[in-house]
């Protein structure tokens, strides 16, 4: 599939959806939100790295979009009359990945960031056209690896997988150079004085060089958090951008609340690592967790949610407004708080397992991991739904999937459709009452030993990929005594808060806590982090949206 446009080849045939031509009536409606001005050939309308990204509709003339890198430019596309500039960072407020330059003098309509928000929130028809084009354009940039960073990594380093996932799940395009496969890579490393031991390396806009950076350093370098005001008191801070947090953000922001969402790594949470969610309402053929999260992320931004890539490390709850402290030490005040921090994967009790995390041991089975182990044997540990999904998904690319279950069989809670597929698949072998007892390798996992607890027999196999899918623990340690938790560390809410718990927590109000409210008035908990939650995408989304109606009530008190 290709296109006849000048610029990068497109992976999709729907050129008219990626680069739609607006009708004169639609252009008139856009003009009401901005200003029309003349532009001259050679004029740069937008520079790569600009933090405030205006939106342009070409009336006459031509505007080219290029990706500059050093002295070179890659032509991405050329916009003619009736077409418009922009992609998803129009809504996120993040830095521009590209340069826009006038190549034929003419006229454009220009809208700044706020005017653009006004347009997409009030004009449903244009909102749909623009939103679709922005998302499809970002997909094309991701596919072509056209971004403002070059990423040098190695298939055998855990840091490489982490950064790939972070960039991919944040929808940020990058060019990737693999140290093992690319013969020119040494020249590039030499020119930036980088030694092989400092891999993975990220080069932002050809300037800043980050050696094995943390997710936070990458977010700072790419300016993910730059446009967000961290000083004023918010109506609502949502902590965690999994399905429950994203749903709260969409409902909260669309209902007029001033919402800030914090996410430690990338939007989507656990669901973002799911290869295919087949039981979410409205997607009969399934949807990947990443697609679902990506859409929700854009939707939350469309309604004006600010999203900060940062970790909440403390809730200061002895005063109002409450204060959420970030890892950087920054403190942000808020009238209400919604905790949507989900849960974390349980690890196998093996001493050297962490050495192979990301280099043979994985906690999610997405397209990225499937690519790494295509044509090889893999192990999936666990007997629940996520393990079942991973096994079925990986069986499409792996030569064989061994499913190791500690108990006598698959969990009673596993969906029937998954059980049937596992039983029928010739490439999946179920090994009940079996546990991994040893893992070995140098840089990469090379072999695995497992033991059958009934026979006591141990077997060693040369397998380099283990998918650990054995459940999760709640992310509540950072709350540090502010809120009542159950004996497993999950947050108690609403009817779960018995009179004695409320007395112990010094609940100050005459009313009982609302549904989904914690032992602290105006602080809510939704999704997997909540005691007694169902641990499904739909229930997390449902709770996230319901909680907003109680947030409104708490704000009025
Ligand atoms: C591999 C896999 C497959 C699954 N498949 C399905 C399926 O097919 N169907 C289904 O219904 N369910 C499925 N689930 C379950 C479903 O994904 C979860 O129930 C759902 O994601 C819970 O959403 P949540 O928003 O409550 O929490 P999470 O998805 O866990 O999100 C929590 C978010 O909070 C962030 N966070 C944590 N602590 C902090 C902090 N201190 N500061 C800032 N951010 C923080 C995390 O980074 C994370 O992004 C699957 C789960 C997994 C792991």
Detailed description of the structure:
- With 557 residues, the chain is of the alpha/beta class.
- Strand 22 (445-452) and strand 23 (458-461) form a beta hairpin.
- Helix 4 (113-122) crosses helix 5 (124-144), helix 9 packs across helix 15 and helix 12 packs parallel to helix 13 (416-424).
- The mean pLDDT is 89.
- The protein contains 15 helices and 26 strands.
Question: How many strands in all?
Answer: 26
- Tell me the helix content: 25-40%
Radius of gyration, taken over Cα atoms and rounded to an integer in Å: 25 Å
Strand content: 25-35%
Summing up helix and strand content along with how strands pair, one would put the structural category as alpha/beta
Distance, first to last CA: 58 Å
- The residue-averaged pLDDT reads 89
Outline, from the CA principal axes? globular
What is the multimeric organization of the chains shown? single chain
Ligands and ions found: flavin-adenine dinucleotide
How many H/I helices? 15
Q: What characterizes the major β-sheet?
A: 7 strands, mixed
Low-confidence stretches: none
